[in-house]
From TrEMBL:
Residues 1-21, 300-319 are annotated as: Disordered. The lineage of its organism: Bacteria, Pseudomonadati, Pseudomonadota, Gammaproteobacteria, Lysobacterales. This is HNH endonuclease.
Amino acid sequence: MRRVDRERVAPPASLTAADGAGPRELKRARGHYRDKNAAGFAFAAYKGADVAEAMRALFGGKCAYCESFHSASSPTDVEHYRPKGGVEGEAGHRGYWWLAADWRNLLPSCALCNRRNGLRIAQPGMAGADVAASKPVTVGKGNLFPIRGRRATGPRGDCEAEDPLLIDPTRRDPAAHLDWPQDKLSLVTPRFLGRDPDPYGRATIDILGLNRQDLVEARTRHLDAARVLLANAEFALTVASVLSGDALQESLRRFDETMALLSGMCAPDRPYSAMLEAHLKQRLSDLLAQYRALRAQRRSEASVPAAGERELAEDAMDA
């Protein structure tokens, strides 16, 4: 999960225009819920084509929660951050129906993050075989929405005072609450505040099942591939340190190409990029320092390209 600036994509017209599907639906819903005994309402405005397109543009076709790239192979669930039809564990709450077509309450989600399922969950220290042999547990958001503050029960309620435990990556920076420890598998854990786990990180991981088996395996494959590229970049730079002339240029070219691939894997629109950034940032920073030292050492030699020709490598490591 990574921070996303919602302001960089314009809200869908169908949800904001005075005569759009969203405002019209909200008006009908207000009338419907005046009856305190009314059953659920059939919401549909959030399913508009322009809503799905805005979600894709904002998150690059990824799930807002787990960063899986799923839009090419399966439909995106337009997820209501605050659930529209009820809140699990609170029988009297009819859901945040007044936010059902509110752009700020919508996120793109994969089915496994959004829906309740029985899945195997990896724990720190486990190997892949241990996870496969474990018992499934029920995870997925569904209508879960735990808070630390006072619950809003209607349009006049103060949602800002709720202090939700589930991280919305457009409102709260996940990096401040989630950690990526070195392990056999790519697991995410809550950051620790002294001896206590961060409550937002803990709740988000547990609710969404961010350490579910298939997701951990996918992240681990990406991390392993990145580690191979990183080793190649380190080798190219080590070799370059003892070369000169054409051989030096060739080694640095390979270094540039490898760093460009790593930079691409860490780009915001790529799967699991927050995890890769967390794992690779320090080593990439070390490589940049080594590269700059080598360039300074050889700057006077004619065989070393001008700084502008090496910008690709620096851009990759600064990403």
